[in-house]
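Render this sequence as a predicted structure.
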Amino acid sequence: MLFDINDTEIHRIRDIFSTFDNDGSGSITLNELKDIYSALGHDFSDNEIMGLMHKMDLNEDGFITFHEFLNLYKNHVFFKLQEEKLIEAFKICDLDGNKYVTLDELKSIMYEVGENLKDPQVNAILKEVDRDNDNRINFKEFIQLMKNCSD
């Protein structure tokens, strides 16, 4: 699925988390959190790390468990990586570069991927995804379409 972290990635994240969990307690501190993100290739400022810590520390005990860390990683960092892929996919579907996928572009894309759909079927897809009823798909609507396709 598009928005799921695969097992290999989870093991990599757990290994890095464990490396910084020096006492083996299953939790880390604010300073260790910054080191972990740095090891994963994501550098955040002290303010950003404090904000992340506040969001992650669900029981407000001053420590982050692996489960808390993985949830934040999945919802913020991993989603950002996936969003970059979605931007590229959207650009491919937006044939005329106007920042929208129109009915004709949707028909063309569906045909290219082997879905030979009739006009009423393509119209139904457009209507289902088009939340602002402008008869075209913007990037936000496109993300929702991709989420629905990966479920």
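Summary. The domain at 94-150 is CATH 1.10.238.10 (Recoverin; domain 1). The CA atoms of residues 5 and 94 lie 27 Å apart.
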